Amino acid sequence: MALVSADSRIAELLTELHQLIKQTQEERSRSEHNLVNIQKTHERMQTENKISPYYRTKLRGLYTTAKADAEAECNILRKALDKIAEIKSLLEERRIAAKIAGLYNDSEPPRKTMRRGVLMTLLQQSAMTLPLWIGKPGDKPPPLCGAIPASGDYVAKPGDKVAARVKAVDGDEQWILAEVVSYSHATNKYEVDDIDEEGKERHTLSRRRIIPLPQWKANPETDPEALFQKEQLVLALYPQTTCFYRALIHTPPQRPQDDYSVLFEDTSYADGYSPPLNVAQSATIPRSGTRCARSSPAPSSTGLLRRRPPFPALHRGVSLSPTPSRDEADRLPP
Q1: Staple partner for 273: which of 54, 192, 263, 294, CB 3.0–4.6 Å?
Q2: pTM of the model
Q3: How far is the first Cα of the chain from the last one, in angstroms, to the nearest whole number?
């Protein structure tokens, strides 16, 4: 019943969003005439080579109108962004409800594990669609925008993606991409699912072993202070994997759609770092207090470990196999 209600609300929101988009276009078309007048007035002033009191008064009025038009369009766009955020929230709630229903429905056969290529595509899409934080003049970026960490009392919600510090089969620790299932205020512990195992591996972890991922991208053009800076130490999700590794910021994003360029720690190189690789804002988090043990070789033929990248091979131009073997993976630095 809840899923039907969510579907109905999403349909309503999409209709409202469509109307807001139409209003935006109407507002833009209406203000176009005033912008043309501003341009023509400047051209006349250049032709006459003087700024008369008449032109000053006229331009003041035209710019006042242009400012009001821009603010009106901005308000409509903010309303549209709010609708989009609500739609995304409802879609996420529906996904979680469907997942829970599937977990507790014994009458249906178990779901197949998601293919690795599909998972990687979904993670890339999620990173691309992370909303850009757009504040009003004077507003400061909130926690979990770009590089700004969560507040001390923040509790991640079910469905939120986090970095989780877990013990591997061989006893070493690593930071993995996980999804929050629940949080217990009584024990101050999270239950999280390993994103790479489709819910087959659940971990109960204390808050200090969880780092919430950014919920908004920071705009380098308006809020550069909300980004990690060059040579800052971070944890970053290695491309085409679901594990976070220690890295150094090589280049911060220059435009809202840009990724970080990072250098991953790699002892096979003389300077200890890999060549630059691109990592999304949503997959780059503070490294302070997050040092975890390096893995020691622990080859096993009992299965495939798909999270650890063969660093030296990748950095020298060899493509990453979709399913590297466990002993390939376990020889890597974390």
Answers
A1: 263
A2: 0.72
A3: 45
User: Could you tell me the sign of the dihedral formed by the alpha carbons of 197, 201, 206, 208, in that order?
Assistant: negative
If we measure between CA atoms, which residue out of 130, 135, 169 comes closest to residue 284? 130
CA atoms within 13 A on the CB side of 188: 7
Question: In 3-state terms, the chain is what percent helix, strand and coil (to 5)?
Answer: 40, 20, 40
| Alpha-carbon dihedral sign for residues 278, 283, 288, 290 | negative
C-beta neighbour count of 218 within 10 angstroms: 24
Give the pLDDT of residue 105. 52
Characterize the bridge pairing of strands 233-237 and 173-184: unpaired
Residue 216 tokens, joined:
């908004």
Q: Coil, strand, or helix at residue 11?
A: helix
> How many Cβ atoms sit within 10 Å of the Cβ of residue 243?
22
Q: pLDDT tens digits for 25-67?
A: 999 998 999 999 999 999 999 998 888 899 999 999 999 999 9
Query: Following CA atoms 256, 257, 263, 264 in sequence, which dihedral angle do they give, to the nearest 10 degrees?
Result: 110
At residue 176's C-alpha, the angle toward residues 224 and 141, to 5°, is 20
Give dist(CA 181, CA 91) in Å, integer. Answer: 16
